[in-house]
């Protein structure tokens, strides 16, 4: 997704921040009210004042964009706790939507050539030196993804002369990309351009200043009139069909899980859940390789259509395919091969269905994967242990097996729930001589609640409670 000037802001919100259209429109209202609704006072009276000083304070745009970033990337900021809102980089996950924003700035170190400058969320490496000159010049400022803060790139693409001051960062000075590529399709793709007098609306118009409703209404009417044109409608259908075909082709790839559904893979083996580092992977193949390399998973493939009826084991590792397929008639020989050729000391044999089920178990959203981090798992296990101890104490007290009891110091919620329940119970003192050896009567206020407690496990329960206390 690509954009220039205000279109650059749209590209950032829809592409980099992955906003829906409705939320992006809400954020546009925020930017309009905080920026275009608050020009410098002198400019509201003197139209030529922008020759002396930009009409809108740059700090208003920076503040508004940081509010948009905080709203649009809340989960990302929470995940990367060392990033503050104003530090979130433009670079994004390579599996997500590729976003380009056009600005006007120097394209060489000496700053002698000013031309179209493209900010990218992804790596766009230099073309091969063997390619022809014409092909090399089509690659505008190739290089690594830009890690500059998002708000700075938003300022760079929208710094229209007379309206906003230019911005300096990375040793360069940037201005509105509309100065060189007002229509980004000249650099990127096709653009639908609303006419019907929309171009006559000044860039700084936002009426009334507190909401911009009149200006937005004019834009909306012109846009609907443009979309109602039969030729425009025909173009929309043609491009929509093309986009659908592209999406269907992408949906058949592994990357689609990350791109569209935000799935990643997490190793669910106990050894990895308790490890110091988080075991998460972008693709299914990465988790499969991890299972082989770390957990010694070996795919047990049946040998079919062979004259060697006694051979029941086949090595499926790629390293073995160069010299032909290695087959074995004895598991001991296969394990010896795995140790010598692939350094697998204790292989775990799995059929294809079991391996795929294990991979499915590891597929989860990024939020679910965060809960698999060692700190989260340790906290959950600790809470489970405390809950079991507290439950054992409560059961013993309720059954009359223990008169005095202590509650674990940790687990505030457990202590509070027990303290609100136990005082309301009065144990039947005749439990020890009850005529029903396998049950106990417990009198509660205001009603009587029967509780059944096997006497066979009484000593075990008492010992468990005393040990936990």
Q: Give the overall shape.
A: extended
Mean pLDDT: 74
Question: What is the total domain count?
Answer: 3
Helicity range: 40-55%
**Structural class by secondary-structure content:** alpha+beta
**Parts with pLDDT < 50 across at least 5 consecutive residues:** 402-469
The CA-CA distance between the termini, in Å, is 62 Å
Measured on Cα atoms, how large is the radius of gyration? 33 Å
What oligomeric arrangement do these chains adopt?
single chain
The total of beta strands comes to 15
Characterize the structure shown:
By secondary structure, the protein is of the alpha+beta class. It folds into three domains: 2-186, no CATH class; 194-252; 263-394, no CATH class. It has 19 helices and 15 strands. The protein has helices spanning 6-16, 21-36, 41-45, 58-72, 74-79, 133-137, 150-157, 178-181, 213-227, 230-251, 255-259, 270-273, 284-295, 331-342, 352-362, 366-370, 374-399, 412-421, 458-468, and strands spanning 2-4, 100-106, 114-120, 167-169, 172-176, 263-266, 280-281, 297-299, 313-314, 327-328, 348-350, 363-365, 425-427, 440-444, 448-451. The strands form five sheets. Strands 1, 2, 3, 4 and 5 form a five-stranded mixed beta sheet that branches. It has a three-stranded antiparallel beta sheet with strand order 7-6-12. It has a three-stranded antiparallel beta sheet with strand order 13-14-15, with helices on one face. Strand 2 and strand 3 (114-120) form a beta hairpin. Helix 2 runs antiparallel to helix 4 (58-72) and helix 4 (58-72) packs across helix 7. The two termini are 62 Å apart. The relative contact order is 0.07. Mean pLDDT is 74; it is low at 402-469.
